[in-house]
């Protein structure tokens, strides 16, 4: 049951043990992996032909175990070659029709005659379970978990016919490069009541990272709002899809949801929770911000304590460590509403010490705690395309599944409380430093007589090209600094990231330099503008 750093892996479809139930949802097959004794349920969409991808996979994967697996495949082919030759008069269409009846799966009519029942199974996309024993399909949480352990699927490129299921491979996500040692169990969101066969949201990308062992980082994927687009080279990339097109299949939790804090991020999150059918009670320090959401169907909470006491799971998204502490510990605060079984999810970006302190006081009252800071901006929040970094109570993380699907494209579970805070600060440290570098380059171009637009055009043609780079440069070129991510908050995150480095005596000179530039921008009254307004700190 150990999940190592495995490449796409060859396997063959076999009959499952009689006492092993087939997972509900999309059609899947029971696959035995060559070179190991591992088995797993694999969805049709995660399988591809062995032969067309063989050479490419051998080039990519040089490991000894992978070569042994390929050798086992070739040996299997030699043994079955005679049988295939004897049946060569059968057309591929006849085989496909027969397979459809036997395996209850969709087949491709124009497939080449298969030489064996072979498949390559790639662990890194749509599943965290590819290389694991059947005995570990039921995870440590057992049947009590609200998420059924099973393989999830990766959506096939639109218009592409399904492959012959006997000769298939799981595609890889270009964003998930490493799967290191550690046990892992597969998950599948419970199917919709109205659509019993359809996964509730087939495009949510969901990772479970266990950091209990030193090198252990285990990935678990449940896709959301992502289209897997295969290029001619056979490689795969992940692109964001229109959130409204796929969100309709989310089955909202029947738990009552509370939400505290309706800022740039919180507003978009609450809108998406309401759109997906969740029951939400809202509270904000300035009550007038609640009005719009009351019109959309939200309920109004008078105090944080009241929201927590009347809801099952309460989320909060506020500005900084002080605000997060005041919200919990202040008068009529969250803590006063906590009693055994109440759940609190803090989505604020704060330091690990703050979130650990909050977790302790919540748990001491019998509550359950999850930290879940989000990576993104106002636009991504509105679009339901945030990246959620969670840590703490694993069961609560699972209970939040429909909420996370509504608000985000990806969620990561990072283990114990504090891990998500640290990771979030590191992510924002990189982003803030990069933003300052962009501003530095654009201003240097200007003062040396170079075209800023041409600089952007050049960068967009190179390896640095990204949505972030283009959007922030456009903001600067247009002089539009309407906040998508407040400058004062990215400076706060840089400050906290530098303090994190201090706590472990790790140098952060790039972040320190960027932090000074943001402080200069704040002195120039840019705090409530977008982070791209750091540009103004460079103008003489």
Automatic annotation (TrEMBL):
A single GO molecular-function term is:
DNA binding
Please list where the region (Disordered) is annotated: 1-23, 79-177
The record's Pfam families line, in alphabetical order, gives: NAD_binding_11 (PF14833), NAD_binding_2 (PF03446), PWWP (PF00855)
Q: What GO cellular component is one of the record's annotations? A: chromatin
Keywords attached to this entry: Chromosome
Q: Where is the composition biased (Basic and acidic residues)?
A: 79-132, 149-169
Q: Where in the cell is it found?
A: Chromosome
Residues of the PWWP domain: 1-53
| Gene Ontology BP terms | transcription elongation-coupled chromatin remodeling
What is stated as this protein's family in its record?
A: Belongs to the HIBADH-related family. NP60 subfamily.
Protein name as catalogued = Cytokine-like nuclear factor N-PAC
Organism, scientific name: Leucopsar rothschildi
């Amino acid at each position: 049951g150990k999940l190592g750093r495995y490449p796409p892996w060859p396997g063959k479809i076999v009959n499952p043990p009689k006492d092993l139930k087939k997972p509900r949802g999309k059609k899947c097959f029971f696959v035995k992996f060559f070179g190991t004794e591992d088995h797993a349920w694999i969805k049709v969409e995660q399988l591809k032909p062995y032969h067309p991808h063989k050479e490419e996979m051998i080039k990519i994967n040089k490991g000894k175990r992978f070569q042994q697996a390929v050798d086992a495949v070739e040996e299997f082919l030699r043994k079955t070659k005679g049988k295939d030759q004897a049946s060569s008069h059968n057309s591929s269409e006849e085989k496909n029709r027969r397979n459809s009846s036997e395996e209850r799966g969709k087949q491709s009519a124009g497939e080449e005659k298969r030489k064996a029942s072979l498949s390559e199974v790639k662990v890194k996309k749509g599943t965290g379970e590819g290389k694991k024993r059947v005995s570990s399909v039921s995870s440590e949480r057992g049947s009590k978990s609200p998420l059924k352990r099973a393989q999830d699927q990766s959506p096939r490129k639109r218009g592409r016919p399904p492959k012959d299921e006997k000769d298939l491979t799981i595609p890889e996500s270009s964003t998930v490069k490493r799967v290191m040692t550690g046990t892992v169990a597969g998950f599948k969101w419970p199917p919709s009541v109205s659509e019993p066969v359809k996964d509730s949201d087939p495009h949510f990308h969901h990772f479970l990272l266990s950091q209990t062992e030193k090198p252990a980082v285990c990935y678990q994927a449940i896709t959301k709002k992502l289209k897997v687009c295969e290029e001619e080279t056979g490689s795969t990339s992940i692109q964001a899809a229109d959130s409204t097109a796929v969100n309709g299949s989310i089955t909202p939790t029947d738990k009552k949801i509370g939400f505290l804090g309706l800022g740039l991020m919180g507003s978009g999150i609450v809108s998406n929770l309401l759109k997906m059918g969740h029951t939400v009670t809202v509270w904000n320090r300035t009550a007038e911000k609640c009005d719009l959401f009351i019109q959309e169907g939200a309920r109004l909470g008078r105090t944080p304590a009241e929201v927590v006491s009347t809801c099952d799971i309460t989320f909060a998204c506020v500005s900084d460590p002080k605000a997060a502490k005041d919200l919990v510990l202040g008068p009529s605060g969250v803590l006063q509403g906590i009693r055994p079984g109440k759940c609190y999810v803090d989505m604020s970006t704060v330091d690990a010490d703050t979130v650990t302190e909050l977790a302790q006081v919540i748990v001491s009252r019998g509550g359950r705690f999850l930290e879940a800071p989000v990576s993104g901006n106002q636009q991504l929040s509105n679009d339901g395309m945030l990246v959620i970094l969670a840590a703490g109570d694993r069961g609560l993380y699972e209970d939040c599944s429909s909420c996370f699907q509504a608000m985000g494209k990806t969620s990561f579970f990072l283990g114990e409380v504090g891990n998500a805070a640290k990771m979030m600060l590191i992510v924002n440290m990189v982003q803030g430093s990069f933003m300052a570098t962009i501003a530095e380059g654009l201003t240097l171009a200007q003062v040396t007589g170079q075209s800023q637009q041409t600089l952007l055009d050049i960068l967009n043609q190179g390896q640095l090209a990204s949505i972030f780079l283009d959007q922030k440069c456009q903001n600067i070129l247009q002089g539009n600094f309407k906040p998508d991510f407040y400058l004062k908050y990215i400076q706060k995150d840089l400050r906290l990231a530098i303090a994190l480095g201090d706590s472990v005596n790790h140098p952060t000179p790039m972040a320190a330099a960027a932090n000074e530039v943001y402080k200069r921008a704040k002195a120039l009254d840019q705090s409530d503008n977008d982070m791209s307004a750091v540009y103004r700190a460079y103008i003489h």
